[in-house]
Every structure is written in structure tokens, then in C-alpha cells.
Design brief:
Number of helices: 7
Helix content: 25-40%
Family: Belongs to the ubiquitin-conjugating enzyme family.
GO molecular function, one term: ATP binding
CATH class: Alpha Beta
Strand content: 5-15%
Number of strands: 4
Radius of gyration: 20 Å
Structural class: alpha+beta
InterPro entries: Ub_conjugating_enzyme, UBC, UBQ-conjugating_AS, UBQ-conjugating_enzyme/RWD
CATH architecture: Roll
Keywords: ATP-binding, Nucleotide-binding, Transferase, Ubl conjugation pathway
Distance between the termini: 44 Å
Largest sheet: 4 strands, antiparallel
Catalytic activity: [E1 NEDD8-activating enzyme]-S-[NEDD8 protein]-yl-L-cysteine + [E2 NEDD8-conjugating enzyme]-L-cysteine = [E1 NEDD8-activating enzyme]-L-cysteine + [E2 NEDD8-conjugating enzyme]-S-[NEDD8-protein]-yl-L-cysteine
Amino acid sequence: MLTLASKLKRDDGGKTGRASGASDSAHRVSIRDRLLTKEVAELEANLPSTCKASFPDEDKLHHFQLAVSPDEGYYQSGRFQFEIDVPEAYNMVPPKVRCLTRIWHPNITETGEICLSLLREHSIDGTGWAPTRTLKDVVWGLNSLFTDLLNFDDPLNIDAAEHHLRDKVKFHLKPYANYLLFVGGIMLYSAERALLW
């Protein structure tokens, strides 16, 4: 984070010493990167206690990972990784988010697609993406998918929602089984698996 901020200062300070417009365009920092410098600082100051953001390359604030470790509900004690890519057209378009951890969730498919209204460019209910939203909103929204935004009535993963309707006890056990199976590396015997489905 500090690397990009210092780069912005260096670029702003060096503009007066440049003679040609061509060298200016080679050193321009995008609007997205300027916004992200401020938003990442705000995000780090207001990150939920159940979340941890990591930036593989501190010069690329537009690509990072978020780990969510819910402390309540069906997914308590799990750790779920999300990959967040912020497109060049940000903040006019929302970030692209994908869940890297295989999960049994009504609003997240097993392939990582996420149903969260604020990540939609156009939303019928008016709660979709708007240029006034920030990365903080995205992180808090992802965190809330495991608590108050867990939605069985409008699912993306219909099988998970129907499983919840059929048998809440087995549904409650399934996230732990998936977590152990795909993250913990523990292989369950087919008879044990059948009990969870």
C-alpha cells in the first residue's frame, strides 16, 4: 500500500520537471489506482474482525484476496478465501469477486460464483453497484453472506437452499464436511458422506 502511495507522490512531484506530453502519459496513474489508494487505507482501518485482506503485490491494489472466518452461524470457525479483482473502469463498475474455497452455501456456487446484490452492475431492487460504493462495502457484504445476508429465499445455489428446507440439521453439518473434505484434506468414507447429503 505504501509503495503505490509513494509512487503517486513521486509522479505528482515529477510532473513539473517533464518536457513532453509523451512522458506524462507513460507515467500516469489511473483513476482506479488513485481511488484504491484511499479506499485500501480506509478498508484497513475498518476491516471486520472476522476478515483479513492480503495483497500479493503491494503495487497492484486492484488484485487482492480476502479471508473471512465467521464467528457465528452455520459457517462458524471456517475460513473462506475470496479473490477480488478491481477492473480498470472502477468505480463505475463493481469489482469481480470469486470464492476460492469450495463451500455449500445458498448464495455461493461450488465453483465460486457469488450472489450479492451490490456486486451487480444492474440490480432490480436498486441495491446494486453504484459509484458511491467502495471496497469497504464489498468486504462487509462478503462478511455478511455468512450471517445476516445468508438468503435461502433467493438462492444462487438452489441445491443448497433445498437441502436446508429438507433437513436443517444435515445442512448445518454439510459446511463442516465440505470444509474438512476440500480444505482440511480429510477424505470421508462414502457412508459418512451419504449421512451429510
